[in-house]
């Protein structure tokens, strides 16, 4: 079944509301969303371990389907239903034609990521590998500082970050537009790009707020660990922060789609009292 979707422009404040709704949905089904993230994390590590190289490529390729799976989980939660494993597989069970479109989106996403990574690696010119070798060998601080300030590292990181940001724009809503709107691959990519452009202020605010949340949570963990006299590795603290906030982030993705395309559950559903 194809649903009518109408592109609309929303105020900037909706970028904050998307996060708020994400927290509310997570509170309704914390176990389901948390297990979804943990399962994804464990499967990712297992896939990379069993199939080095190929596993990483497969993991990157399925990310559009992962985001759609969490959108479907939020959709079910709003209907007072419990999402399960089948929820994340449903995008490939709708119709053969839409399944092919979803798989083509995954392939195009992998091609895009490969291009961004390839360009960043070319700009890097091996400077990151040299820095890692110096740190692993325990070289003197001056040598490490010199390698760390190599301008190629900065440009490589900037290229990768901006490239991934640009790539996310056409793929942000594309899987949902194929699933619910029945759009073709090219139309879905174009519609997603147009939606993010028209609502760029809301998405900008949303991104800034997520950045502030991540930074605040990360700093709070380090501060608490210091007050308790615990030695918490910053990398581990950042990983824990990601695991704790990722379920809310993925739960909120559905609302970006709802607002941009006038689709979703009744507008008052989040204000109702849970039974």
From TrEMBL:
Q: Which UniProt keywords apply?
A: Membrane, Transmembrane, Transmembrane helix
Q: Which NCBIfam families match?
A: BPSS1780_fam
Q: What is this protein called?
A: Transmembrane protein
User: Per the UniProt record, which residue ranges are transmembrane?
Assistant: 30-51, 57-78, 103-123, 160-182, 203-228
Q: Which InterPro entries match?
A: BPSS1780-like
Lineage, top-rank taxon, reads Bacteria
Annotated source species: Pelomonas caseinilytica
